[in-house]
Amino acid sequence: MKVFTVRALISMILVCLCQTGSSLFASTAFTELERTEDGVVLHGTVTNVVEPFVFLYESPDLVTWREAARLHNASPFQYFLPIDSTGDRFFRFDVSSGPGDWSNQIAVYSDPYAAYSAELPYVKFVIKLDQPDKVYFSGNYLFHYDFVTARIEPFIGIPRDAFDNIARHNAGRQLLVGAVLLPSERSSEFGIQLESETPCRRSW
Predict the structure, then answer these.
(1) Sign of torsion, CA 136 64 157 52?
(2) Is the bond preceding 183 in cis, omega lying within 30 degrees of 0?
(3) Lowest pLDDT segment from 53-57, 83-87, 171-175, 179-183
(4) Before 159, cis peptide (omega within 30)?
(5) Partner of 181 at 20 to 30 A CA spacing, among 53, 63, 135, 193?
(6) What is the CA radius of gyration of the chain?
(7) In angstroms, rounded to a whole number, what is the distance separating the alpha carbons of residues 198 and 149?
(8) pTM of the model
(9) Residue 12 pLDDT level (bands cut at 50, 70, 90)
């Protein structure tokens, strides 16, 4: 177990938990903590794993842990977490092999979640309005509805009309759904496309 401690406005300990006796132990770890005005960027590396999929956790006390992010294609990885300026924060991550079917981060080029068969390659995403700093990118779901009702709490299993009410209309909206448009032979630009039956508010 590698421990990396940094004290700034708050104290943080980065803990990488590896499988006992695994060859990952010597090569899988956090490598850097980068402070920003409103959060922290965690840097890490994973080796000896095919298509590493990282589960990132945070805790205020090393007892109660919550999942902060899932990162696919994560060797190496970096991820921004918004945090306040009070109290301690502890971080750890676990690693599995395989792309998974959703992630909180995508790569700029050659992302395995992208639909490259389209004229403009894209990756679908969902944002919960009560969690505006976190993006959920869909890997294996054809429609936003399928992704949300299979994976996004607390909306798992909701009927289609309920999904349309919270995702496509401003009255009662709880989700933003759309796609990131990626560079292609047709264009070198990026784009963000939002899907909605009513115009989205600028405040979002």
Answers:
(1) positive
(2) no
(3) 83-87
(4) no
(5) 53
(6) 18
(7) 22
(8) 0.81
(9) very low
d(CA 49, CA 51): 6
In sign, the C-alpha dihedral spanning 139, 142, 147, 148 is positive
**In the prediction, which pLDDT does 25 show?**
40
Percentage of the chain exceeding pLDDT 90: 46
Structural element, H or E, at residue 144: helix 144-151
Looking at residues 188-192, what average pLDDT do you find?
A: 86
Preceding omega of 52 cis (within 30 degrees of 0) = no
Is there a contact between 87 and 60 (Cβ–Cβ < 8 Å)? yes
Which domains does the chain carry?
Answer: 2-100 (2.60.40), 122-195 (no CATH)
Type of residue at 118: A
Q: d(Cα 177, Cα 169) in Å, to the nearest integer? A: 11
Place of tokens 């965690």: 42
Question: Within the chain, how many helices (H) and strands (E) appear?
Answer: 2, 13
**Positive/negative CA dihedral, 44, 48, 52, 53:** negative
Between residues 118 and 168, the one the model is more confident about:
168
Q: Are 75 and 24 in contact (CB under 8 A)?
A: no
CA torsion through residues 42, 10, 55, 1, sign:
positive
